[in-house]
Design a protein that fits this description.
The protein is of the alpha/beta class. It is globular, with a radius of gyration of 20 Å. Helix 5 links the parallel strand 8 and strand 9. It starts with a strand and ends with a helix. The protein contains 13 helices and 15 strands. It folds into 2 domains: 157 residues, Medium-chain alcohol dehydrogenases, catalytic domain (Quinone Oxidoreductase, Chain A, domain 1, Alpha-Beta Complex); 140 residues, 3-Layer(aba) Sandwich (Rossmann fold). The strands form 3 sheets. Strands 3, 4, 5, 6, 7, 14 and 15 form a 7-stranded mixed sheet that branches. A 6-stranded parallel sheet has the order 10-9-8-11-12-13, with helices on both faces. This is enoyl-[acyl-carrier-protein] reductase. It comes from Phreatobacter cathodiphilus.
């Protein structure tokens, strides 16, 4: 079998290697063997391959990939609730491999009729959107939040979840061509704005919301964009940063923090897993899986690339102007009809 292996940090398209690996042994008691079908590529994967993600670099060599969907290929002794053929989300961080053994508790069973491409995106982006929407500020139907990078996967999931709950979203994108897609997903208002003029942006926000207070801002960009969004928040509002797409640290004027009581927080899904508790995690993923299965909670896919062409997939995922996610499909995924 094959795996995508990182042997040195750098440009993902130039750094990754497709290596032959030994097949996993039969699963031990309490384990299952999962055959991967579709592999998701997240910005965090690209940053990790560059050695820029988190507080420390993983030891080399390593198999990356925080998200995928697979099928149970073998079941170890003592495992209940899972059977060969079940579709699962592997709750591990080394998913870019054809087959892997893992504890049965880390294989989350999904609906049999779930779309496999959407299921490959289940673990990270929709759960992030859910936590950003529900766990930061107590929003009620009719309230407003705003977000940048609104046409990203997280942004699209957040728009759909907010609409289901009657929460208004003011969505910021960089390109005029991205406006229609966010509106189609259910965005209340969409602005194409470079987030480089605080006064102009604040005026646009006031016009778009009819002067209603915006209590929550969700920031995936960092840099100067953080401060620009903070300036358009209502006094006492909260801005939550979960990404640095600009490549720069968050910048915010101290006057917002001191005199306007704006709060700046960070969000990392790993911490949410640690803090949420099993019941909350199960409830969240159960709702997301049902939404993916019935088609009410989906995000666009721009490209599905064979695993054998992983370097091309990395280049596509790192390029700007995409209309959706870039996924890789394994040989087993191709046989299952993906791609």
């Amino acid at each position: 079998m094959q795996a995508i292996v990182i042997e040195g940090f750098g440009d993902p398209a130039a750094t990754i290697r497709l290596r032959d690996m030994p097949e996993p042994p039969p699963p031990a008691p309490g384990e299952v063997t999962v055959e991967m079908l579709v592999l998701n590529i997240n910005p965090s994967d690209l940053l990790q391959i560059q050695g820029l993600y988190g507080t420390s670099r993983p030891p080399l060599p390593f198999i990356p990939g925080g998200e995928a969907v697979g099928r149970v290929a073998a079941v170890g002794e003592g495992v209940s609730g899972l059977a060969v053929g079940d579709i699962v989300s592997p709750m591990i961080l080394n998913c870019w491999v054809e087959r892997v053994n893992l504890k049965a508790a880390l294989a989350m069973k999904l609906p049999a009729d779930i779309d496999l491409a959407q299921a490959a995106m289940l673990k990270g982006n929709p759960a992030t959107a859910e936590a950003l929407l529900s766990d930061q500020v107590a929003l009620q139907p009719g309230d407003w939040l705003m977000q940048n990078a609104a046409n990203s996967a997280v942004g699209t999931f957040l728009v759909r979840l907010a609409k289901q709950r009657g929460i208004n979203t003011l969505n910021v994108v960089r390109r005029d061509s991205a406006v229609a897609g966010v509106l189609e997903a259910g965005g209340t208002a969409v602005l194409a704005d470079a987030l480089d003029d605080p006064r102009a942006f604040r005026k646009k926000v006031q016009e778009a919301t009819g002067g209603a207070p915006v209590k929550l801002a969700i920031d995936a960009i960092g840099g100067a964009a953080t401060g620009v969004m903070a300036g358009a928040l209502a006094d006492g509002g909260t801005i939550v940063n979960y990404g640095l797409l600009s490549g720069e640290q968050c910048r915010i004027d101290a006057q917002h923090l001191i005199f306007r009581k704006i709060s700046l927080k960070g969000f990392w899904l790993i911490h949410w897993f640690q803090d949420a508790g099993r019941a909350r995690i199960a409830e969240t993923y159960g709702r997301i899986a049902r939404g993916m299965a019935d088609g009410t909670l989906t995000t666009p896919v721009a490209d599905v690339v064979p695993m054998a062409e992983a370097a091309r997939a990395m280049a596509l995922a790192g390029a700007g102007g995409r209309s959706g996610k870039v996924l890789m499909v394994t040989p087993a995924g191709v046989e299952a009809g993906v791609g």
